[in-house]
Amino acid sequence: MHSPQPTPRVLTNVDHQRLFALVERHDTAPSDTGALDALMDILDFADLVPPQGVPAQVVTMRSRVVLMGQAHGSTRRLTLSYPHDDVSGGLSVLTPLGTALLGARVGQQVTWTGLDGATHHAVVAAIQYQPEAAGQLHL
C-alpha cells in the first residue's frame, strides 16, 4: 500500500537545486534521516517555477515569516534558512518546522512534530520579506 503523495508545494528552481544538493551531500546521524526524507518528499513532488515567477505569498528560502500559533495565539517571527546560514532568527529548513514552512502560503496552516513528539500547528500569518518579491532572485 502506497502512502498518499504530499500536496505539491511551489518552489523556485533555484531553491530546489540548492536543497537537492544539500540533501545529496549532507552527512547525517541516523536520527536526522527523517528530516532529510521529509525534505526529499517535498522536493520530489514540488511544482517548480523560476524565481521571478513565484507568488509573493509563498514561503521560499530566506523568507522572513510571521507565524501565529494555534494553541495560544502566540506570534513568532523567523527566517527560513539553510543549515549553514548565520541568520538572526534563522530556522533551518532541516528542522521539522522549517520543512513544514517550505512552499507554504500566507493563510495556510502548517503542521509539524516537535522534539517533544507532540504535533504542533501554526498559521503563516504574513511574509515580511521574500527575496524573490524584493528582486533578490539568486539569494
TrEMBL record:
GO terms for biological process: regulation of DNA-templated transcription elongation. InterPro entries: GreA/GreB_C_sf (IPR036953), Tscrpt_elong_fac_GreA/B_C (IPR001437). It holds the Pfam family GreA_GreB. Residues 55-128 form the Transcription elongation factor GreA/GreB C-terminal domain. Signal peptide: none annotated. Keywords: Kinase, Transferase. SUPFAM superfamilies: FKBP-like. One of its GO terms (molecular function) is DNA binding. Transmembrane segments: none annotated. NCBIfam families: PRK05753.1. This is Nucleoside diphosphate kinase regulator. It comes from Aquabacterium soli.
